[in-house]
Design a protein that fits this description.
about 200 residues, mainly beta, 14-stranded antiparallel sheet, 1 helix, elongated, disordered N terminus
């Protein structure tokens, strides 16, 4: 075989491989089951940490429903959003001092199999959490944030974060644990545990 023929054969093979990879990427899909089933999400060790403030909460609980078919599946990338409602965060402290967290909006767990394995991201809406410290004018408002994607441990029905993600926030006011007003980012740690009548499964 001549050098020209070999080169043509190599280029053709490379092109075919590139098309196959592109096609595989484009055909990513996600199916979350069981469709339409109620699900709860809880954490006993949620922690959000900035450079100067660490917020910890001993109990986080939210509940929602896996989308009914056909909303529980997609033939493209981007995964499926599972609402966990407006969660309740209690037993919270900021740097050891009591704090109150007021939540709002619909928090989501975005579940996908885009990478070929189950991944989960916690999606917090703009203003989804407002932290206040009693006895001070300090307020921290969490902006639209996505933590993940992180591996969704299907056998144990959980997603674990360890100083992960980008939690956007705006801080105003003053107080013992409240430096000057600022806008910045924080990270989240904790285990988000899921419970449902039938275990959640995520497949491509």
């Amino acid at each position: 075989m001549s050098h020209a023929v070999r080169r043509t054969t190599f280029v053709t093979a490379a092109a075919v491989a590139a098309i196959a990879v592109a096609a595989g990427t484009a055909s990513a899909s996600t199916v979350v089951t069981p469709a339409g089933q109620a699900v709860t999400a809880s954490s006993s060790n949620l922690s959000i940490k900035t450079g100067t403030i660490t917020l910890t909460c001993s109990s986080t609980t939210g509940s929602g429903t896996i989308p009914a078919a056909p909303g529980n599946s997609t033939t493209g990338t981007g995964g499926i959003n599972v609402s966990i409602g407006t969660p309740s965060l209690t037993g919270c402290k900021a740097n050891g001092l009591p704090a109150v967290v007021t939540t709002s909006g619909s928090w989501l767990l975005n579940v996908s199999a885009d990478t070929g394995s189950a991944q989960g991201s916690l999606v917090i809406p703009a203003g989804g959490a407002v932290v206040t410290m009693p006895g001070s004018t300090c307020t921290v408002t969490v902006g639209a944030s996505t933590i993940g994607p992180l591996p969704f441990d299907i056998p144990n029905q959980r997603v674990v974060a360890s100083n992960t993600g980008t939690v956007n926030y705006t801080r105003t006011g003053a107080g013992p644990v409240c430096p000057a007003a600022a806008t910045g980012t924080a990270t989240m740690s904790g285990t988000l545990q899921f419970a449902s009548a039938t275990p959640i499964n995520v497949t491509p």
